[in-house]
Each structure stands twice: as C-alpha cells, then as structure tokens.
Design brief:
The complex is a heterodimer. Helices cover 5% and strands 53% of the residues of chain A. By secondary structure, chain A is mainly beta. The longest helix of chain A has 9 residues, at 405-413. In chain B, strand 9 and strand 10 form a beta hairpin. Chain B is mainly β.
Chain lengths: 459, 256
C-alpha cells in the first residue's frame, strides 16, 4: 500500500500547488486542511462522506485536470468533470467516501494535478448506531439509507421515531443532529451537542407535514452521516361542512354544544379551525370576554377530520362547548377545512335580566342582599324588594322600589364581563333583625321584569 | 311588626356604603399549571383572571375566605385572593380546610404526617394536634370551628376520622361504603367522589346522585361561592350543588 501511494506522487510545479488550497466543508464553515486529515470513525460496513473544496487563492485562473484518491476503501462519491478552469478565488467541490468493510486503520493520499495535497487517515470500528424504530420493529440505518414517510394528506402529518445508541465502551459525542427539507421538521426530543454514555441511547422524532401534493425529499444529518427522508404529499379531499348547535336557538349565559358534520365520509385526514366573531348590539357597551370556547379558552378552536369519519373531532370528542356570553349581539361561527369554509350566524337576543343566584345574609343589625345574574340588554333600571316576617306576612311598607338605572348604566359602561353583575344591597336594621324571615325581589330592564321568588334569609 | 318595618333603613342609593354593583366572582382554583386562578362570572359564563400565585399545591375556598398551600407556605386569603395570614410549613403535598366561620384552619402535611391548626385569635401556630406518619389523608373538612373530619384510607376502605381540636379526642366512624379516591368531604357532610367517568354526589342522609363526564376525574376541591372545582383528564370543570340538582360547567382553559 505504502509503495503504491509513494509511486503515485508526482512532482509538479510548486507555483500551481500554492494557488489551489484544500478545505473541508463542514456545516457553516470551511476549514483549511493541512498535511493530513482525519475522517471520523466509521462503522465497518457503513460509510462516511466528506466534502472537500479546492479554492484558487492566486490572482489568475488555474486549470484543474487531475484529481485522485489513492488508498484502499476511499473513493470519490462526487467528482467534477475534468478538466475545469478555476478562476481566481473560484472553488471546486468534491466528496470522498470512506467505506470500510472490516475494522482497522486506513489511509490514502489525495492528489491534485498529480501532486499530493494531504494524507487522509481513517479508522473503522465501533461507532454509534442510528435506528428507525417502529411499534414493533427496529431497523438499523446505514449512511445514505432512505426513510419513507409514505403518502400524507396536505395539512396533516406523519412522524417517524429514531434512536441513536452507543454500543461502544466509551461515551460518544454527537455535535449536530439536523433535519432539512421544506416539509420535514425536527428533530423533536433531542438537541445537539450531546454525549451518549456507553451503552445508552437517545430517541427523537422527525415529522413530515406536506403543504403541497407532490413527492418531497429531505435529509436527517447526524454529524457526518446523512440519511435521506422521503414522502409524498396528497391533496386533501374533504366533503362539505356544516356547523350545528345544541340547542339551535341561543340565549345568554349558556354553555351549548357545537358540532361539525361532514356531508359524507371524509376521504382524507386533516385539520381545520372553528372560530367565532361577535358583534354586540349597539345598545350595549361592547365586547364580551365570556363569549368563547372553554376547551381552548379563546374564540377559536382546532378540530381534526379523520378519513372515513363524518364528524370532526375536538381533541377526541365529536363536540365541544361554547359559552354564549351575556351580551346581546350577533355571533358568526366560521369553520375552515381545506378549501371549504362554512359559516353559521346566530343571535343572542336582548332579554329580561337572568338571575343566577340570590341570597340574603342576616347580620347583627343589617340584611345583606346579593343578587348575581346578567342583563344581555344592559338596560336594568328598577329594583323592588319585599321582606317577610317569620309568619310569612309582608313587612310594611310592602314593596320598596329603588331606581338603579344610573348605577347600572355606570357599571355597564365600564364593565369587563359583558352583561354580568353582582348587585349587593345592604339594609341597616334598627329593630330585631331575627324577625325577618324571607325576601323577594324584582329586577326590571327594557325588555321586562324578572322576579326572584321568595327566599329564606340565611344566618 | 310595625317597629320592624320602620327599622329597615332601605338603601336609597345603591352606591352608598357596602351596597353597589360589581362583577360577580365564582371562586378560585389551582389550574393545570399549578397557578392560583380567580374565576369571574356566573354559571356558564366564566372568565379566568390572571394568576395570583404560582407553584400551588392545593387550595380550598369558600365565598369569602380560602386556604392555599404553596411549596412551603400555608396562606389564608380573602375572597379576592389577598393574603391575610401566612405561615411557613412543611414542603410537599397537603390537605387543608377552613372552618365555616373562617376562624380556624387545619392542614395535614404528607411529608411529616402532621395535622396542624391555626386560629385567627392567635398569630402563631397552635400546638401540633396530631402526628400520623404514613396515614393517607384523602380529604379534610371542618364541620365547625372545633372539629375536623379527616377521610383516611384504611384496609376496610375510606374511613371518616373525627378529631376534636379542643379535647384531642378521636372518633373513628364506619367506612364509607362504595367510595373511592379522588374524594371530597364538604363541611356540610356532603361527599363527592369520582369513579371512572362518573362523579358521585352523596349529600348527608340523602340518596346518591351521579353525573357522567366525558373523561376521568383527577381531583376535587372547594372553589368558593358554592362551586366545586373538578379537575378532569379532558379539562377543568365547575360544579354547583343545590338541593335538587347539580350544574356542571366547563371552565375556560388558562392562556399561559
């Protein structure tokens, strides 16, 4: 081997060699190569590709007519068509593949235009192992192998799990794990640099999410080893959508069920979005933060459609809750899936005040009456109260009316909860407060009057 | 009667004194991220407020007062979430309860197996009430200010253990048949427990009622104003119990 290599060394004008400098191309860098270059340890049976670059550092063009790697298990994986004229500061790239079949130490001369530029040194032995893992199978990958993600509908995704294991007795350092290709994403679950201890392994995922219906390729690169990723995008075919509510007619202060149905079984799997827009009645003070999808905590929620199904799913459920809010106005639901958009407009009507809870607490010398509820019209104006003694007789003077229009108007003008309110009315009592047994109240707004039925006073 | 009628000095204007109109509050709960969150609104129209505390282990609120266990603090907070009292306590999980009149707090600490209590009459912690390493306390309630009931897991099932704070006397009751964890004992004696996707409500001396959810329940806690926080695998819920029915609503997911 040595004699062969030495025989390959030919003498050429030193001027030419001074102009063509050798570099190794690494991620984000171009590093000068000296008298020798060590190729990363490669597992027997696998191969390592190293990209080199010749750069003309002289002021005039140089002809490159000879490029040769002399050594067992070293070949060119890519080579420019020679001869080639390299302009001043121009470059020529080529790739040398080291592909050992047995363990050991290897070397080769790299000759350019007949002169030795460097000695390549490489070791074949144990290295880390990259495996494609499935539910029940695991396939060891060799550099250059292709991992197929199959055919995936645009808008949805497929993923594959990989592992890097270290079968050697020494820790292995991985400097870079990258995924390239427009529709490929990852790695998910690992970040380099990392050290894998002897006998240990790390796992990570790579996703394929095509946005166009065509075959696509990418690459998974782990340091100097690269694996081809392939997949095909398929145009999503979805049936027409329809949005339905249960109940169909909405009122304020409810959590209703929303469902998205498909006209027929879906031919594709994909993801869509359901959103709402709210226009409050002009008589109200504005937006209502309680109008939302609780499952997302916002006014939009994602859904998925699965091939063969006729109902969209919100997470795993075929319906989701929607809070109607407490402000009169118009709600537009918009569902989008692929090229389909469907809308449904519903109204939250202005209505009489709705009472959610009412209680009256008996203090030492007062009655503390609290009514919580909502007024979708935000027009509450008149309150009446009536108190009963322990025998059920109305306490004179009977109904007590309070004009609260300005108080409600002031509250709603700066309200941050739509039409919701908590009314607290404290009645000082000079006599025996224990004699007050129950209360009744009414709240009137522009639509009508609601009555809080007779309710016992609490201790 | 006439005297009473004259005695009621009615609010001529709601803006005066304690009277007025403000936004309703449903209570407080520990959200999925471990933050203490206020819940505003009425039934079915909830809005979450900004977090008031982080790294909360557990919380229990009535309408105007609550007890919060953080990593190493036990806090008494008012209905708005403001801290009224705070003590350094053992780290880790704890169950806590507050008396109906808001004057006494009891807490059981899993790390040390201690049942401790505090009173509003004294700023410092009162002498250790009880220590029971290894006891698994599933719920804690204070029916009144002098008594605490612990639900403990035993070989024969979940058993209520009444403990008098004044005398130190124990009263071990009969196992609660058919109950499982997560379980919540309320001050009024009502039991709530979850079995798979069903939430059982067993008021004292009344028939059990069951509510079906879309998923399993992870924990139950008093949220305040009659609401119970139900943390389920598929979301956060608020349950209100009344004499003849239960109302279950989904709480909005917190925007982190």
């Amino acid at each position: 081997m040595k004699r062969t290599l030495l025989a390959a060394v030919l003498l050429w004008p030193s001027l030419l060699m001074a102009e063509l400098k050798l570099f190794v191309v690494e991620p984000g860098a171009e590093n000068a190569v000296g008298d020798s270059f060590t190729i990363p340890t490669t597992a027997a049976g696998d191969y390592t590709d190293t990209v080199f670059r010749l750069r003309n550092t002289g002021s005039s063009a140089v002809s490159l007519y000879g490029l040769n790697v002399a050594g067992s298990r070293f070949t060119f994986a890519s080579l420019p068509t020679l001869p080639v004229n390299v302009a001043s500061n121009g470059t020529v790239d080529f790739t040398i593949r080291f592909q050992p079949v047995t363990s050991g130490t290897y070397s080769a001369y790299l000759n350019v235009n007949g002169s030795r530029l460097t000695v390549l040194v490489a070791t074949a032995g144990s290295s880390y192992v990259v495996t494609l893992t499935g539910e029940s199978t695991a396939v060891e990958l060799r550099t250059g192998n292709t991992v197929d993600f199959g055919t995936v509908t645009t808008g949805s995704s497929a993923s594959r799990q990989f592992s890097i294991s270290n079968p050697t007795s020494q820790p292995v350092t991985i400097n870079a794990v990258t995924v390239s290709g427009d529709s490929f994403a990852g790695p998910d679950g690992v970040s380099a640099p990392l050290v894998i201890e002897a006998g240990a392994s790390v796992s990570f995922g790579v996703a394929f999410a095509p946005t166009v219906a065509e075959a696509q390729q990418g690459a998974l690169t782990i340091d100097h080893r690269s694996f081809t990723l392939s997949g095909a995008g398929k145009a999503a075919v979805f049936p027409k959508l329809s949005i339905s509510l249960t109940p169909e007619t909405l009122t304020g202060g409810k959590q209703v069920k929303v469902r998205i149905s498909l006209e027929s079984k879906s031919e594709s799997t994909g993801a869509g979005k359901l959103s709402v827009a709210f226009t409050p009645d002009s008589s109200t003070s504005g937006d209502d933060p309680a109008l939302l999808f609780p499952a997302s905590g916002s006014r939009s929620i994602a859904f998925t459609v699965t091939e063969g199904e006729e109902l969209a799913r919100f997470s795993s459920l075929t319906e989701t809750e929607f809070q109607t809010g407490t402000t009169a106005g118009s709600i537009v639901f918009t569902a989008t899936l692929g090229s389909h958009t469907e809308t449904l407009t519903v109204t939250i009507p202005a209505a009489s005040v709705a009472v959610d809870s009412a209680k009256c607490l008996r203090g030492a010398s007062s009655l503390d009456l609290q009514i919580s509820g909502f007024d979708t019209s935000q027009s509450a104006s008149r309150l009446t109260f009536r108190f009963y003694d322990l025998t059920g007789t109305v306490i004179s003077p009977g109904s007590i009316t309070v004009d609260a229009e300005s108080a409600f108007k002031k509250y709603f003008s700066s309200a941050t909860l739509g039409g919701q309110f908590l009314l607290r009315a404290v009645f000082p009592v000079n006599g025996n407060v224990l004699q007050v047994g129950a209360f009744e109240a009414t709240v009137t707004n522009s639509i009508g009057t609601v009555t809080v039925p007779r309710t016992a006073v609490q201790q | 009667m006439r005297r009473l009628a004259f005695a009621i000095l009615l609010c001529a204007a709601l803006a005066f004194g304690q009277s007025g109109i403000r936004r309703p509050r449903a209570g407080m709960f520990r959200d999925r991220a471990g933050d203490l969150r206020p819940v505003f609104g009425v039934s079915g129209a909830f809005v979450l407020g900004d977090p008031l505390a982080e790294k909360v282990e557990s919380s229990s609120f009535s309408s105007n007062i609550g007890v919060v266990k953080t990593e190493d603090r036990l806090q008494i907070r008012d209905g708005s979430g403001k801290i009224l009292h705070e003590w350094e306590v053992p780290t880790g999980r704890a169950r806590a309860a507050i008396s109906p009149d808001g004057t006494k707090v009891t807490a059981f600490f899993f790390e040390t197996g201690e049942l401790r209590y505090w009173s509003s009459e004294t700023p410092d912690e009162l002498p250790v009430a009880w220590t029971a390493n290894g006891t698994e306390v599933l719920s804690l309630a204070m029916p009144d200010s002098g008594r605490v009931t612990l639900l403990v897991r035993s070989d024969s099932g979940i058993v209520p253990l009444d403990y008098s704070l004044s005398t130190g006397q124990f009263d071990l009751k009969a196992p609660l048949e058919g109950t499982v964890d997560p379980i919540l004992l309320r001050g009024d004696g009502t039991l709530l427990f979850a079995e798979a996707n069903e939430l059982a409500v067993r008021p004292e001396n009344e028939d059990e009622r069951r509510i079906t959810l879309a998923c399993g329940v992870k924990s139950l806690a008093e949220m305040g104003s009659g609401w119970i926080h139900v943390a389920a695998e598929c979301g956060e819920f608020a349950l209100r119990l009344s004499e003849d029915r239960e109302e279950l609503y989904r709480l909005p997911e917190a925007q982190q």
